[in-house]
Batch of 4 targets.
Target 1
Amino acid sequence: QLQLVESGGGLVQPGEPLTLSCAAAGRNFERNVMRWYRQVPGKQRELVASVSTGEETNYANFVKGRFTISRDNALKLVYLQMNGLKSEDTAVYYCNSLDLATMSISWGQGTQVTVSS
């Protein structure tokens, strides 16, 4: 099971870019599907983007064309590049892993992204 630590959150103005990073510790990173979720108070956590072990990517409709997920298996890192940020993107962003061999799931502690002028 991986241990995940997110970084890169902060306060940005609408339209500005921001890149989140997720550093993984543990074995077999390459056999994990990696995902970014986000959550605002009072709402359910929602899937933002995912990258498979074969580096196929999928995105929620509300971020398509604006966000890009990527992974670096050698460094055990996952990135979420966010462009054209909107106020409604304000949330705590969580990194998530799914080990396809054991089906175990890990979560990071989250990083706050605030988009405001």
Note: The CA atoms of residues 5 and 109 lie 7 Å apart.
Target 2
Amino acid sequence: QVQLLESGGGLVQPGGSLRLSCTVSGSIFSINRMDWHRQAPGKERELVASITSVGITQYIGSVKGRFTISRDNAKNTVYLEMNSLKPEDTAVYYCNADIMIRRYQSYSKYWGQGTQVTVSS
């Protein structure tokens, strides 16, 4: 059974940093794109950053220059380094991955359970 296990959330003061991790566990053949999304209270979930299997990255404008997405393909893990955090970054952060379970099958999206990030003094 495929699972995405997230860690690294918590409470941090404005201007602080956190590093989120998300590891894919289970028997799989391949991982394509991996994303981080977030959902703040009363708001829709939004895509924050994405990274392809060869390392091409994209970010939403509000986190450019502050957040860095990276991945370790050998560990099936994606990271989100978050610096200069602001109160408006407060949200539940979810990882998402396009995964092929067996060779020649299509890719399917899998989600992590979410990890809370709270930025407050």
Note: The mean pLDDT is 97.
Target 3
Amino acid sequence: QVQLVESGGGLVQAGGSLRLSCAASGSIFSINAMGWYRQTPGKQRELVATITSGGRTNYADSVKGRFTISRDNAKNSVYLQMNSLKPDDTAVYYCKQEIATSLVFLAYWGQGTQVTVSS
């Protein structure tokens, strides 16, 4: 059984910063890509940033230059440093990790953490 636990969300003023964390635990054999997604009411979940096992990163255009994704393989964790936050960044943020407990990689999601940016 694999569990992802997120932390770090909250309320911040525009221009401020937050750092999200997501740690995986359980019977983990290997982890491939990790990523962060976000969702607002009535909209589809959208990609924010991803990072491969080799460290290659990809960002949504709306967050490039402001957000930084990183990972710590020893801790089975992925992080999202969010700077220069804008009210449009307000959403529930979800982490996703591609985890193999045996020979097959499956996608696991965190429970979501609320990020609210006030103007």
Note: The two ends are 41 Å apart (CA to CA).
Target 4
Amino acid sequence: QVQLVESGGGLVQAGGSLRLSCAVSLRTFSSCAMGWFRQAPGKERELVAAISRSGISTYYVDSVKGRFTISRDNAKNTAYLQMNSLKPEDTAGYYCAAKAVVTASYKVYQGPDEYDYWGQGTQVTVSS
């Protein structure tokens, strides 16, 4: 059974930084495109950032551009989300997701329905 385990969330003051990690128990991790989603109470889940299986292509939602960076380490089967200059509106549960990809090593995926596997989430709270 595939497991995605997020870590690195917590409470931080506005302007601070956190780095989220997503460890994936999948031997073919390098064949997966990855995404980080977030969901705040009463709001829909939204894609924050995505990275292709090759790592060549990335996507960011406008509200985090220039502040967040998605990356991956295929040797460690881990994806990361570096979050800088955090704002109170970044407060949410953050979830990583993986999509098995046979081809298209450059493609990123934006829809939650496109992903095959999900983690349980880690809470990020930014105080003002």
Note: The chain has a mean pLDDT of 96.
